Amino acid sequence: MASAPPMRRTSSGQFPLLREHSLVPIGMATILPEAARHVRHLEAELLAYFNRFGYDEIILPTFEYLDVLAPGLEPMLLENSYKIVDRTTGRILLLRPDVTAQIARTVAMGMVGTHFPLRLSYRASVFRHEPEHVGRDREIFQIGAELIGADDPSADSEIIMLMIECLRQVGLRSFKISLGHVGFFKGLLIRAGLSPEGQRRAEQAAVRKDVPKLGEILSQERVTKRATHGILEALELCGQADVLSKGRALAKGEKPLVQALDRLASVYRLLCATGFQESVLLDLGEFRGFDYYDGIVFDVFTDGIGVEIGGGGRYDHLIGRFGRNLPSTGFALSVDRLFRGLNLSEKTMSVGPEVLIVAPLGLSARLVSVAQRLRRAGIRTVQRPVNPSGRDLIGVAVKAGLAADIDTIVVVSVDNPTSDQVIVLHQGDYRRIAGSTGRAHIRKRTVSIEDLIASLRVDLGGAV
């Protein structure tokens, strides 16, 4: 397939878009055909790989009732959600801001008799209002997996291994997993005696790795210098196994902190034992931005993207907000950021052989018949009836092929010896004679439809 024209990006790095502020809402995406092929292929490849691990796809509603989903969402996320009134019931509807909360609600309320552990996967868009000056997208394309009903280090390791294997499967070679435990950093804040509001603000600063802001908050909360030093040190403790020993020194034997480090050490050992040590960094300040995480948490980063391309963690009490507690863990990848990390916008994607089939208006029925045979054989086929108006049919077909940027032209003509034969022109033939009116310059090949299909099927083997 010929190269697509250059594709533009927005300032936030979103997919190549066709956007005007007066026509398209800010932060929403229109994905153009070349990028759309990459995106759909990427999603399909990831979902197929999830399936190999035993994760079944679930499709969730775009809207939820606010009062139903609210228990699973933190106040800030609720505030930044899009809401409308249901015309039928008068209740407030929420445009999906988070998939994990939806899955938690679905499992707790709608999957009675399910055998656990339960493995689910999904692809979905989530919608969150962000101030325009922040430069973040308001429509976020996600793909992810959830492991529900298992609470042990092997479950944590499984979900992280799945994410790593998926990233490798789609061709992302350079990335790092930042692995931590929410309980450790929270434990340090609790031990320091912060007020509930001070702890909330401190956690938000930790999510952003904003050391100066965190120090300011601790000062305002009148935390002792010694405790402040330990908290700020923990936020920047990142590396390999030696990080754990430094963390134990900060824990000072306190049971909640030691338990968090023990769980983190177990997961890290499992990942190292299965060959993932080079992909994983321990980070005792790892602290994701959703309040339902209460155990192992992780983010994944890659070169050239200034923010995480995905992440996840353990949420043992989220499902309980909707009914019964079930230990769970999972992750989500931002398809947009992964797309950019793979540099797919700069690559032309092969979609197999593409054919333009042309015939005079009087042969429309035969045109459709031949096109259907090609499509049933798995060949992408565009049909076009033309009116030569006394001009050369081959010349008209050549111009149509150039206009459509399609390499292979099939011409259905009254001049064919039998109804099962067509004329074929290939890119190397008709591009050289573009603009020429001399029929002698055109090399034509008359073949049977079966032979044409056989030759195109050879090309199908190299399709992406």
Description:
This protein has about 475 residues and is an alpha+beta fold. The chain folds into 2 domains: about 35-60 and about 95-345, 2-Layer Sandwich (BirA Bifunctional Protein, domain 2), CATH 3.30.930; about 355-460, Rossmann fold (3-Layer(aba) Sandwich). It contains 16 helices and 17 strands. A hairpin with a 7-residue loop joins strand 10 (about 295-300) and strand 11 (about 310-315). The chain is elongated and about 95 Å long. The relative contact order is 0.11. Mean pLDDT is about 85; it is low at about 1-20 and about 435-440.
Question: Keywords, please?
Answer:
Rossmann fold; 17 strands; nine-stranded mixed β-sheet; 16 helices; single chain; five-stranded mixed β-sheet; 464 residues; 39% helix; elongated; alpha+beta; BirA Bifunctional Protein, domain 2; 2 domains
What portion of residues is helical? 25-40%
Mean pLDDT: 85
Say how many strands there are. 17
Q: Uncertain regions: pLDDT < 50 for 5+ in a row?
A: 1-21, 434-440
C-alpha-based Rg, rounded: 29 Å
Structural class of the helices, strands and pairings?
alpha+beta
Strand residue content: 15-25%
- Examine the coordinates and then state which fold CATH places here, giving the name of the CATH topology of the largest domain: BirA Bifunctional Protein, domain 2
Assign the CATH architecture of the largest domain. 2-Layer Sandwich
Determine the number of helices (DSSP H or I, runs of at least 4 residues).
16
Briefly, what CATH class of the largest domain? Alpha Beta
Q: Please state the overall shape, judged from the principal axes of the Cα atoms.
A: elongated
Distance between the termini: 12 Å
**Biggest sheet character:** 9 strands, mixed
In the sheet with the most strands, the strands line up as 1-5-6-12-11-10-7-9-8
Number of domains: 2
CATH evolutionary superfamily of the largest domain: Bira Bifunctional Protein, Domain 2
